[in-house]
Design a protein that fits this description.
Elements lengths: L2 E3 L6 E3 L19 H11 L15 H6 L1
Antiparallel strand pairs: 1-2
Length: 66
């Protein structure tokens, strides 16, 4: 899974990749959508201290391709 562990903490963050047409690319390890894998992880973590989920969209590569 495209996951990065935040060193020195129990935190992770996940990358969801999209192709040039805006379609989600599958996770290369499982061939499943990463977004669905993240939802599965979050649904299993009901009894944890997860309080915030941040989404960051980056259009830089699309702009550079013009």
């Amino acid at each position: 899974m495209p996951v990065v562990k935040v060193e020195g903490t129990p935190l992770n963050y996940y990358f969801i990749a999209f192709d040039k047409d805006g379609n989600e690319r599958p996770n290369p390890d499982s061939n499943e959508p990463t977004s669905q894998e993240i939802l599965n992880i979050l649904s299993k973590e009901k009894n944890t201290d997860i309080t915030d989920i941040f989404l960051r969209l980056n259009h830089l590569f699309r702009e550079l391709a013009k």
